């Protein structure tokens, strides 16, 4: 590594002309001469700090990542002074209180073992390294590239999104974790780490559609279909969507109108599907159709007669949310998933418990990220000569945010523990209600956290780049988790109805 030059503060103070302008941030000296005319904040703010220490002013207006991006203007460090501010490196866990799950901040936990810690550390590094690319794609609204999807595939992270199961058994996951060890705590960590990107649209587009649709092939696909498609989907070479909802019907699967007419060797499908995540760029659609005596599930490959149109939603077009039209599309018998007219079973294999668990983990993580953002901002932002954190109203908002995030995390961990120790049938019997209630609670929590975080960040929470960019994403997109995978009202009602079923007939006040 090249040793940086050492300067005294007095030496820096002599570089104040526009064509020869130096500034100090922490213990580092930057030469702004070539950058000043390109500075997005204009020439004047930099001129004001010419030759001076701009640390406090800089951190009042920029995220730390700006320094990493413009590292090339660094020319030296201050003689005899050490850094007071740590520059976060890819893979680092935060040391800010409540910014990580407590077990990852040195607190005791009955749940986590070495495999979970190793996995989180390995995954954090990968996610941090891919973060800038993910954020660029999400804000441009682009289709996540094949190269990007394949990077996830190479680390087996598409397979990890689907949850614990045999598809992970012969692979090694980040942190050198054998896939066989992958349990619902690893799974929770997967969804939490990806949520830290603050790109809910892109994550939905890259992983969401596949996570909820692939189980239909894994559980009900014919062996030849499975053998051919699963490797392509888990490596990121192909994309897949679940196509159930229609303009006429959301959760009410029985009322779908997309129709499959039996013809020789297969089916002829006609109909429309709406709100299909990943649909705009999916190669395959696990599609609910009406057949002669019931609902069936067909795997439809993109071909002539399949049209996908983007639906403009509040989150990034990278989600690939689509309106899908099937017009006289021939689907061979080999692509029937499960048994004709018994598609409900296949729909159930999508495992709504797992989908909801994923949404819960993402919600808690996005809210926890907001806690860290707000805590840092409140500590460094000065208004009327005082740091924000010195205002009791700000501390009160932070307290509410922290308490609600921690309570949701603790409940999520309890659910993960139950999922680890119950088979599918027991989970379906005992956990549908609690998971429904937790999803309802987690997204209500997100609503409150997004609201408080916005008030703490002010106008910056309404700005897509800069200091408040994560808060802006949270407040614009948190409603997706409150609606997708079962709306809050349905989740809350499901929780209580399940509890009523288990209410003892002999219980009285
Ligand atoms: C290494 C030195 C610096 C670099 C690389 C840099 C870079 C940037 C960048 C990339 C932005 C756009 C940020 C965004 O959208 O979030 C920005 C905005 C800005 N910068 Fe700097 N900057 C530097 C130093 C300074 C200093 C010393 C000041 C003095 C106070 C300053 C004041 C501003 C202001 C006022 C804005 C606009 C902020 C806003 O819209 O809220 N910058 N700077």
Automatic annotation (TrEMBL):
Kindly give the InterPro entries that the UniProt entry links to this protein: Acyl-CoA_dehydrogenase, Acyl-CoA_Oxase/DH_mid-dom, Acyl-CoA_Oxase/DH_mid-dom_sf, AcylCo_DH-like_C, AcylCo_DH/oxidase_C, AcylCoA_DH/ox_N, AcylCoA_DH/ox_N_sf, AcylCoA_DH/oxidase_NM_dom_sf
What's one GO-annotated cellular component?
cytoplasm
GO terms, molecular function: acyl-CoA dehydrogenase activity; flavin adenine dinucleotide binding; heme binding; metal ion binding
Biological process terms in GO annotation: fatty acid beta-oxidation using acyl-CoA dehydrogenase
Signal peptide start and end residues? none
Q: What are the residue boundaries of the Cytochrome b5 heme-binding domain, all occurrences included?
A: 4-79
**Cofactors named for this entry:** FAD
- Key words, A-Z: FAD, Flavoprotein, Heme, Iron, Metal-binding, Oxidoreductase
Database matches in SUPFAM superfamilies? Acyl-CoA dehydrogenase C-terminal domain-like, Acyl-CoA dehydrogenase NM domain-like, Cytochrome b5-like heme/steroid binding domain
A Pfam family of this chain: Acyl-CoA_dh_M
Can you tell me which family this protein belongs to?
Belongs to the acyl-CoA dehydrogenase family.
Q: PANTHER family, from UniProt?
A: ACYL-COA DEHYDROGENASE FAMILY PROTEIN (AFU_ORTHOLOGUE AFUA_6G10880)-RELATED, MEDIUM-CHAIN SPECIFIC ACYL-COA DEHYDROGENASE, MITOCHONDRIAL-RELATED
Q: What is this protein called?
A: Cytochrome b5 heme-binding domain-containing protein
């Amino acid at each position: 590594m090249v040793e940086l030059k050492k300067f005294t503060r007095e030496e820096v103070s002599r570089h104040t002309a526009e064509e020869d302008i130096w500034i100090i941030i922490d213990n580092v000296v930057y030469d702004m001469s070539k950058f000043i005319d390109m500075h997005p904040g204009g020439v004047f703010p930099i001129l004001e700090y010419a030759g001076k220490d701009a640390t406090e002013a800089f951190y009042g207006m920029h995220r730390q990542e700006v320094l990493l991006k413009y590292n090339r203007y660094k020319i030296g460090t201050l003689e005899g002074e050490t850094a007071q501010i740590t520059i976060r490196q890819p893979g680092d866990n935060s040391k800010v209180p409540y910014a990580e799950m407590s077990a990852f901040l040195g607190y005791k936990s009955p749940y986590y073992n070495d495999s979970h810690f190793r996995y989180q550390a390995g995954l954090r590094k990968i996610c941090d390294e891919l973060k800038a690319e993910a954020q660029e794609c999400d804000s441009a609204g682009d289709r996540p590239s094949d190269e990007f999807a394949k990077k996830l595939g190479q680390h087996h992270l598409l397979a990890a999104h689907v949850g614990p199961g045999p598809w992970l058994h012969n692979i090694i996951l980040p942190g050198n974790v054998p896939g066989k060890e992958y349990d619902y705590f690893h799974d929770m960590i997967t969804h939490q780490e990806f949520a830290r990107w603050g790109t809910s649209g892109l994550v939905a587009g890259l992983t969401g559609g596949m996570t909820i649709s692939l189980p239909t092939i894994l559980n009900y696909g014919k062996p030849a279909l499975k053998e051919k498609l699963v490797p392509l989907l888990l490596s990121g070479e192909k994309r897949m969507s679940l196509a159930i909802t229609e303009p006429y019907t959301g959760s009410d699967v029985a009322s779908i109108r997309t129709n499959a007419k039996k013809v020789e060797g297969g089916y002829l499908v006609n109909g429309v599907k709406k709100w299909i995540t990943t649909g705009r760029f999916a190669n395959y659609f696990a599609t609910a159709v009406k057949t002669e005596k019931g609902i069936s599930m067909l795997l439809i490959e993109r071909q002539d007669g399949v049209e996908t149109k983007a639906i403009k939603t509040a989150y990034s077009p990278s989600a690939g949310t689509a309106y899908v039209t099937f017009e006289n599309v021939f689907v061979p018998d080999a692509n029937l998933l499960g048994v004709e007219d018994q598609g409900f079973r296949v729909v159930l294999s999508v495992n709504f418990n797992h989908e909801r668990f994923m949404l819960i983990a993402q919600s808690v993580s996005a809210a926890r990220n907001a806690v860290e953002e707000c805590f840092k901002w409140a500590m460094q932002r000065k208004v009327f000569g005082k740091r924000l954190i010195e205002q009791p109203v700000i501390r009160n908002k932070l307290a509410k945010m922290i308490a609600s995030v921690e309570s949701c995390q603790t409940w999520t961990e309890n659910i993960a523990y139950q999922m680890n120790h119950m088979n599918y049938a027991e989970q379906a019997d005992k956990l549908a209600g609690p998971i429904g209630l937790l999803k309802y609670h987690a997204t209500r929590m997100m609503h409150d956290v997004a609201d408080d975080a916005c008030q703490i960040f002010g106008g910056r929470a309404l700005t897509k780049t800069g200091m408040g960019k994560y808060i802006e994403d949270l407040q614009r997109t948190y409603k997706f988790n409150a609606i997708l995978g079962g709306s809050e009202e349905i989740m809350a009602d499901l929780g209580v109805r399940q509890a009523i079923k288990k209410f003892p007939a002999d219980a009285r006040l």
